Amino acid sequence: MAARATFDFFEAQRSARRRTALLLLYYLLAIPGVAVLVHLLLWLAIDLSGDGPVGLPVWSPDLFAGSLAFTGIVVGIGTLYHLWSLASGGGEGLARSLGGEPIPLQPVTEEDQRLRNVVEEMAIASGLPVPTLYVLRGETGINAFAAGFAPDRAVVAVTGGCLTQLTRDELQGVIGHELSHVQNGDMRLNLRLLALAGGLSALALVGRVLLQAGSSNDRKRDKGGGWQLALFGLALLVVGIIGAFFADLIRAAVARQREYLADAASAQFTRNPAALAGALAKIASVGSVVSSPMAPEASHLLFAGGRPSSWLDDHPPPESRIRRLLALGETAPLPALVRTQARAATTPAPTAAAPPPLLASLAGAAALSPPPPAAPPRLAAAATLIDALPPELAAAAREPFGARALLCAVLLDARAEVRARQLALLGPGPEGSEVVRLAGPLAAVERTHRLALLDLALPALGALSAPQRERLQGDLRRLAEADGRLSLTEWVYLRVIARRLDRLGTAGRPARTLAFTVDQVVVECRELLGLLARVGASDEAAAQAALDAGVAALGLTGRWKLPATAELGFDRLDQVLSTLEATPFKLRARVLRACQACAAADGAITAGETEVLRAVADALAVARPPPPAG
Questions:
Q1: Distance between CA atoms of 150 and 127, rounded to whole angstroms?
Q2: In angstroms, rounded to a whole number, what is the distance separating the alpha carbons of residues 441 and 585?
């Protein structure tokens, strides 16, 4: 019997990340390579014109420095322009440009409701904000994409074919793939790759302008005085086209590695490679082409190739992806499912070509796979949690008026005298009555489960107008301060809600500072970890041990002094999170992992620690670490 190849989730992800880093290095090397070509063109233009110094050597350091500066400026301006144009529309702008329409928070059709249920379950289980949902109803192929610069502004869109042709498990596998793009930072990477390719193509635009200027100059003067400019413009146009071509090649190669990474991450999270393999097998049968004119430009964002196959494909073929999923060692349902899809695909159809026979042979090889270890129940726990929420609360969270009232009800105090003061602040209108109505069932919801209600309610805030958002923030602040003090829970809720309200309508990326290393934010890290250490510890020794665990997770040595309680005011914590937010993604993810290690140092994560982790993850725009499997 042939030996079965071993292939684990984490090695698959590490391998894809290593290949991505190498390809990005090639991308950066392309710029000086283009500068060399520009240098040769400039030398040729100077030599032919006779205006330069006599005997100018082919290689001139000064000339190359000028060429590199010229190339860098043109590519830089082009990249920034494309980045700005992509950021200004955000994920929702891209979804609309592809023909998408938003799915209502309370869907009408059964297919839309199934999609919203799947996305809500997976977002809560994976520690991500619930994304905005779009559907490309006119597209019959099976495809999907995630877009946006940050998890709290993410958009997930699926085609109509996804909704009508995939089972719930297959849809869950596809959504897991897209959410892993959100979690791994692929949305930012994809948009930046698109901007870099646009930056290299800017050389062609400059070349076209110079070519037209030179030709116009010749016509006006009725002589050949502008032929050197026109010739240089033509050559620059060719260099720009070549540079953009190789940029597209590298972009496609990076996109293929990120697809493998997302497949492995989805299989690791759902522990159901069968579902994702089934979706890919159906794609091999019915296709994944997106007919929108924008599809070629956004193809690398899609779940599968959105244009007819070519040698510039930015997605691996479905057979290759299925082979890797089979190697993940799933149990019997996988070969049975893939065999079913392969047999169905062999039925002649006028609109679909016969699928590769590799699907059936791969399914046979998968039958040798032994059963995997028991799956962690995070997805089942998230679904159970949502189902266990009182129906009136879940319904209120999914529409704007109810979401506003629910967020206010969360901040109502248990003490009768304080609650009466809070309700008086809201007044006797419809909002106050709705808050009172929701407060009853909310009292029976556990403290940690209220965060799930917060996750469900935040998307509904997108329908509020600017004055309504401002009023809601004022109401929440007055409710929290009605007793003259701000508790940790109140600070967390105010922080999370205020961030969401402030970011609504802001599709661009947050500003970045020059803090790139832990050493540059060591003071902020100490205060943040110190807060977590004190929240979950019973005494000074336990708090110091928790802080030590967080420092070790940061990758630092030495022992930090535990901050005094007086140093950990909420105003200061707001400043700390704002500073850490303005750092690169990898550093923010590292800080969040350290916070998780600090909170879990004693083997348990309390409700207070869970709330702080939520606020930190939300502020840093990084997915919350999943709770330990139980």
A1: 14
A2: 39
Residue 119 in contact with residue 157, Cβ under 8 Å? no
Alpha helices by DSSP H, listed for 398-487, are 400-410, 416-426, 430-442, 450-457, 466-480
* Separation between Cα atoms, residue 65 and residue 330, nearest integer Å: 56
Do 42 and 63 form a contact (C-beta atoms < 8 A)?
yes
Model pLDDT for residues 130-144, shown as the tens digit of each residue? 899 999 998 999 999
Q: Report strand pairing: 132-136 vs 144-147.
A: unpaired
Count CB atoms within 10 A of the CB of residue 260.
20
Its pTM stands at 0.75
Hey, which residues are catalytic here?
178
Neighbours of 535 (CB within 10 A): 21
Could you give the C-alpha distances from 533 to 90, 550, 596, in angstroms and in order?
37, 9, 11
CA distance 446 to 607: 10
| Separation of alpha carbons 272 and 372, rounded Å | 10
End-to-end CA distance of the chain: 36
> What is the C-alpha to C-alpha distance for residues 489 and 495, in angstroms, rounded to an integer?
10
| Alpha-carbon span 393 to 395, nearest angstrom | 5
CA 346 – CA 354 distance, rounded (Å) = 6
Query: Which residue's entry shows tokens 């070349």?
Result: 207
User: Edge to edge, what strands does the sheet with 155-159 contain?
Assistant: 101-102, 132-136, 155-159, 144-147
CA dihedral 51, 52, 57, 63 (to 10 degrees): -120
Confidence of residue 511 (pLDDT cuts 50, 70, 90): low
How far is Cα 273 from Cα 266, in angstroms, rounded to an integer?
A: 8
CA 599 to chain centre: 25
**C-alpha to C-alpha distance for 492 and 29, rounded to whole angstroms:** 45
pLDDT at 351 over 50: no
Residue 415: alpha-carbon gap to chain centroid: 41
Q: Indicate the pairing of strand 132-136 with strand 155-159.
A: parallel
- Give 75's Cβ-side CA count (13 Å radius): 27
Q: How far is CA 44 from CA 21, 231, 460, 548, in A?
A: 36, 10, 61, 63
Which pairing describes strands 155-159 and 144-147: parallel, antiparallel, or unpaired? antiparallel
Count the Cβ atoms, other than its own, within 10 Å of residue 429: 8
Which has the closest alpha carbon to 537: 602, 614, 615? 602
Span 66-77, pLDDT tens digits: 877 888 788 788
